[in-house]
C-alpha cells in the first residue's frame, strides 16, 4: 500500500509535470472507482491543474476555480494495490467501462492521446476510490484524519498516546490517530525505536515515547527524501530497498543479525526483530484480526 512518502512523491511528480496543463478528457474505465457524482468528472474538461497535494495517504489533484464555479479537487485513495502512472502518450480511444483491467481512470492533458496520468489497480479486489469534490473535507476519510505524521510535534504526540490501551502497532496505523503511516513504515518505526508491536500504547514511558517520536520522524522523513524525485515507476522499488524489517521475513536484521520474524493474519502480516524489539522472545500469534486496520 502506498504510504505517506510514496504519496508525497506522486504529488511532487504531478507538480513537476501536470501543473498549468488543461484537461482534454477524463476516461472512466471502472464505474465503481467513482465515489461522487456531483460535480461530474466532465466538469474537469478545460480546467487547468494548479497543484497536487497530500492528505495523509490521500492524493489530491487540484484544479483552478472559475467565476461560475469554485476550485475542484480530484482525490484518490490508492488502497492496497492502486497506483498513479504518468504517460506522455495514451490511446485516444475511450476504454470500455468494464472495470476488469488495471486501468480505473485516465486524465488526458493538453490533447486527447497526449500526456496525462492514470489511476490503476492490480488484482481482483477493487478498493481504489476516486472523489471529485469542491472541498477536500467532503471526502469522509479525509474529514476523519488525525494530525499528519510530519506535522505533529513531540508534545502533541505524547498527548495523543495518553489513555490508549491498544497495541502500538494498531494505534500507529490508525489514520484517525495519526495520518500517513501504514503497515510497512510502522514496522520500520517500531524497529528503529526498539519497541514491540504488542506494546500497549498508553503504558510507554517518556523514554519510549521519545524514541517512538524520533523514529517516526526519522523513518518517514528519510523515506520522503529517498522517494521525492523518483519517477512513479521506480517508487515501489525504492521503498523496498529502504526497508530493514518489513517484508524481510527470514533474513538477518541489519542491526543485530537476528532472524526477522513474522506474524500473519488474514491477508496481511507484519515483521519485527526479536532481539531489537522483544527481548529475544518470539511474539505469540494471537488476536491478530484486531491488530491492524
UniProtKB/TrEMBL annotation:
UniProt xrefs under SUPFAM superfamilies: Glucocorticoid receptor-like (DNA-binding domain), N-terminal domain of MutM-like DNA repair proteins, S13-like H2TH domain
**Known PROSITE patterns for this protein?**
FPG_CAT, ZF_FPG_1, ZF_FPG_2
The family classification in the record reads: Belongs to the FPG family.
State the UniProt keywords alphabetically: DNA damage, DNA repair, DNA-binding, Glycosidase, Hydrolase, Lyase, Metal-binding, Multifunctional enzyme, Zinc, Zinc-finger
Q: Which reaction does it catalyse?
A: 2'-deoxyribonucleotide-(2'-deoxyribose 5'-phosphate)-2'-deoxyribonucleotide-DNA = a 3'-end 2'-deoxyribonucleotide-(2,3-dehydro-2,3-deoxyribose 5'-phosphate)-DNA + a 5'-end 5'-phospho-2'-deoxyribonucleoside-DNA + H(+); Hydrolysis of DNA containing ring-opened 7-methylguanine residues, releasing 2,6-diamino-4-hydroxy-5-(N-methyl)formamidopyrimidine
Which positions fall inside the FPG-type domain? 244-278
UniProt KW Magnesium keyword:
no
Locate the Formamidopyrimidine-DNA glycosylase catalytic domain: which residues?
A: 2-158
Whether Nucleus counts among this entry's keywords is: no
Instruction: Write down the required cofactor(s).
Output: Zn(2+)
Q: How is this protein named in the record?
A: Fpg/Nei family DNA glycosylase
Task: Name the lineage.
Answer: Bacteria, Bacillati, Actinomycetota, Actinomycetes, Pseudonocardiales
The highest taxon in the source lineage is: Bacteria
